[in-house]
Amino acid sequence: xxxxxxxxxxxxxLGALLIATAGPGFAQQADREIVLxxxxxxxxxxxxxxxxxxxxxxxxxxxxxxxxxINGAKLRIAILDDATxxxxxxxxxxxxxxxxxxxxxxxPLTSSAAEVTFPVANEMKIVATSxxxxxxxxxxxxxxxxxxxxxxxxxxxxxTVPYYKKSFNxxxxxxxxxxxxxxxxxxxxxxMPALMKENDIEVLNASDPLSFNTGDLDVSAQVxxxxxxxxxxxxxxxxYSQAVTVIREMKRQGMIKPVVGSTQLISSxxxxxxxxxxxxxxxxxxxTMKGDKPEKFVNxxxxxLRKTSGLxxxxxxxxxxxxxxxxxxxxxxxxxxxGVTGKPEDLETDRAKIxxxxxxxxxxxGLGGPIGFNDDGDAIKAFYILQGESGAWQSKVRGCSAAPGxxxx
Amino acid sequence: MMSTYYxxxxxxxxILLLGALSVYIILATxxxxxxxxxxMGIGAYLTSYLTVTMGVPxxxxxxxxxxxxxxxxxIIGFPALRLRGIYLxxxxxxxxxxxxxxxxNFDAMGGAGGFHGMRHVSLGYIWTWAxxxxxxxxxxxxxxxxxxxxxxxxxxxxxxxxxxxxxxIKVGAFGFAAAVAAIAGGLFAHHHVYIEPGNxxxxxxxxxxxxxxxxxxTVGAGALVGALxxxxxxxxxxxxxxxxxxxFGGLLIAMLLVRRQGILDRSLFRFFEFRRSA
Amino acid sequence: xxxxxxxxxxxxxxxxxxxxxxxxxxxxxxxxxxLAIAELFMLGGYFGFAAILAKLPLPVALLAGxxxxxxxxxxxxxxxxxxxxxxPVVTPMLSTLGFSIILQNVATNIWGSDPLQxxxxxxxxxxxxxxxxxxAMQLTIVGATVVLVALLAFVVQRTALxxxxxxxxxxxxxxxxxxxxxxxxTLLAFMLSGALAGAAGVLIGLxxxxxxxxxxxxxxLKAIAVMVxxxxxxxxxxxxxxxxxxVAEVMTTAYGGSQIRDFVVYGLMIVILLLRPQxxxxxxxxxxxxxx
Lengths: 409, 278, 292
Prior knowledge:
The complex is a heterotrimer.
Chain A (H helix, E strand, L loop, with lengths): L1 H21 L10 E8 L6 H20 L7 E8 L4 H14 L4 E3 L4 H14 L2 E4 L15 E3 L4 H16 L3 E7 L3 H17 L3 E2 L6 E3 L7 H10 L3 E5 L2 H13 L6 E2 L8 H5 L5 E5 L8 H15 L12 H19 L9 H14 L3 E2 L4 E4 L5 E11 L2 E9 L9
Parallel strand pairs in A: 1-2, 1-3, 3-4, 4-5, 6-7, 6-8, 6-9, 9-10, 10-11
Antiparallel strand pairs in A: 11-14, 12-13, 13-14, 14-15
Chain B lengths: L3 H24 L8 H18 L4 H23 L4 H20 L10 E2 L6 H19 L2 H11 L1 H6 L4 H27 L1 E2 L6 H14 L4 H17 L7 H15 L7 H12 L1
Antiparallel strand pairs in B: 1-2
Chain C lengths: L1 H29 L6 H17 L4 H24 L8 H22 L4 E2 L8 E4 L2 E4 H23 L1 H11 L1 H6 L4 H27 L1 E2 L3 H16 L4 H21 L5 H15 L17
Antiparallel strand pairs in C: 1-4, 2-3
Helix pairs in contact in C: 1-5, 1-8, 1-9, 1-10, 2-3, 2-4, 2-8, 2-9, 3-8, 5-6, 5-8, 6-8, 9-10, 9-11, 10-11
């Protein structure tokens, strides 16, 4: 009896779902539309970033359409969730480029997704710009359609490490990294050891790399081992949510040593882990940044983020929200500046126009300063070495990811 | 003309179908493998090494990788004879995690940083392989060998008593399955043109099993239905936004409740055969 | 450093023990791999956090986590196991996977995907003895694990309830003939298992003081390895296997290389499966392992 009822309910549920899925998808094309696409991870381990990105994109859409659209056309940003799964990100791009006829795509967020999605962007001849991928060389491998509004970690480290060395009088470090995270592992096993050598800092565990895996709760053994080496500082190469585990453990074992890392560390969550441990990391944006543009951005976005369900009530705009905001702003600027029509018959030429605009871009007014792209497809923009202490990020050094005198800086 | 979006999804279906078939073949002997992503990983890395570093043509590389993975499958199959049911399942789980951990530390092929340089293959190429192996399994299903497999599944002692070589059958099934999973891996690598150890995790092994059980574990074609469902369903649940995967999980349970034997089963086929003859 | 690493290994081992027991209760009695246990552990962590943030004392938080996880386990038993009790074991395993997907999604929607952190270590007191230093929470974890295992062993080995559970584990049909009604007992087994996972979640959550909706995934797979090493049929097996794997992991990190740690753990599991399929202490009946 009971199972009969539950079966009937299941069948009814399945039926309702099929009807519901068949319903939308046939939106009528009333006005002329300019379509942009976005790939964000709204489910899975990075859900919070993806959802905040979504709010940011919807804010831009509303602002643009409220101000009369682009060249008289309505802006529509088609946002797809890749669930932090690289294979889904590739299909998202195929959908945005093939079905939605997007002119350009913002995303995907992670380097693992970018690695497999950028080749598809080249195949389909559509610009894709990642808002967070910073694993070295990912855009470079996929020229000419792949871009990243981020700076290669190797470039950032060149400014971060000397500052770290000088401020904390560092002569030796221990390195720990997340072996399962491609970006973190590359930074931890290749980039950071090389940078330490350049700066005459001894890596005490050079012959014995210390790592853990994404999702590990317990890193006590690794931290005990680092503590026994007694370094002046610690390199933590991991995504901030994993780094929190390491920093908490350091605090628990009484290892109060300054931490340095990559952009992956930047978040407000990590500052809560152990306020007494100073953290040094590079960023192109942070929520307490000074200046008209960033302050306006934060003032507009923060209330929207905070009233969105599924996001924590104390959330602040992240660097990736700023990056995706800039990416879409650049696309819109490209559309306005290069006479993109948005008509179906011009799709190919429109996409090529956006690509050419991106490749030549210099001095686009971004939130933290002018933005351009180098030959590798990575951003030329200002960055800041931040120091997190007592729960807040402070900007210490301003750097730029290009040769001095470049208009992008 | 099919949209490239659907073409991309269908490529995923073809690869998942091969993975699911590899689980199906082992399941036919009454054994559950939770580690076939390990064989897939071996196939992916080996095929990519052969095409990128050695310049071997893809088809040949796939055949070599399948043979090598099949040999590893046979080697794994022998100790596995000592284990039954859920214990074997857990040993294969351990195997899968060991393979992933191995590639994570295999710096010669990028380690955690992943491996590049493969050339993209067409949807047609993926489906040629998928259809050929599905056909092969379908032919096998109507052969003496399959009767023997099922005899081993139903009652191993009795099968041995009537003179069946249960060792060869079980080990052979492991080897064949490992070869099929390796082809899935090789095609995966050349579809996405980038691989990293995280692609071949426990989650992937579970996906294979899920496709077989949802589609129907008594007929090879069930794997096809299951693979289609697993790839397409999450795409069609996008309108649910933040609740997409919760509903997906719920539907999964609901489908098992409604048809625990899977969508396709033998009685369904018999029903159609009966209709045709009538 | 060796002694300190032993302390680290024992803490980790205690956690593994609790989750492994949670797996083995359902596995040993019903032959089912409940994949949602990793998420029950995660839920226990969140419930415990909520209780501590509401300024409730630790024992209350522990009970809250246990009760919450046990309730969810009860739902899993009714919907995800009971209808499949005579199906091949792979079917309930996949239905519990469905619950695991649902619980991860729900937790992400409620608490977010960022790590939820306690403002400061709530139980930050430390005890130092020579070169070794342990926190109050570490001692609590080890102590609570021993007490919970002893309690469980007592229930299973000495009480009428335990005898009935073991009878069902031995042979469901015979147990029914003897007048043991299996339905309520399987529900109880699931709830006990859920309570253990919940307890582990509370203790770990408070110790590491940072949890995410995905913390169960890795530790769940490791706990399966611990269960296998200890043997699914013996409760005390997990009490030995947990610390064994915990110490093996920590020692691999300390003296070998942290990269090969997982390789060692799963390798150990496979070796034990092949050499002593019944687990270190014996008791499991692999020769008639359930049909898949």
